[in-house]
Amino acid sequence: MDLSRHLRIEAHANRLANHRLHGAMAALTHAELHAARTSFFPSLIGTLNHILEVDQYYVGALLGEPELATHWDRFKADEELAPLAARQAACDERLIAFCDALDGAGCERVIELPRSQGRVQRERAAHVLAHLFMHQTHHRGQVHAMLTGTAVEPPQLDEFLMPSEAHLRVPDMAALRWREAEVYGPTA
């Protein structure tokens, strides 16, 4: 499998995991979303907002959006899950579209990441994507752990990368209107 295909699968896996996680969390009350918990960002909603904020920054960088240097100042956190989940889904879909159009040359393209004090970090797109997918997984894991302190059973989040586990994601794939062959391509 080539790198661009792998990154396309990762982008879809990210969307599937967020879809499943947000769906499981829909039963939580406002108080449960905002309750102090043990984690780097000490609430479920705080951690979800952090994931969204970082995702929007890196997707914006990958797409060459202007004004990224002020992204952190402009980001508005959501207080409720539904609007946050909608914004996350939109960002996830933009990431999928970027990765669906990716080829070998696109993986090597240099992405500019505006940082503090006017510094611009330059990285290959594949490295930016690898970093982004790791960041998402890391913080979704924290949300998963925090859910153990609620009545919501933490959903399974790690069965989206292997084609042979299609039977474990049938409802999610149907809800997102995806077909296995479109996401995974030929499996033999």
From TrEMBL:
Residues binding a divalent metal cation, per UniProt: H50, H135, H139
GO molecular function (one): metal ion binding
SUPFAM superfamilies: DinB/YfiT-like putative metalloenzymes
Alphabetized UniProt keyword annotations: Metal-binding
Pfam families assigned to the protein according to its UniProt record, in alphabetical order: DinB
InterPro entries, A to Z: DinB, DinB/YfiT-like
Family statement: Belongs to the DinB family.
Protein name, per record: Putative damage-inducible protein DinB
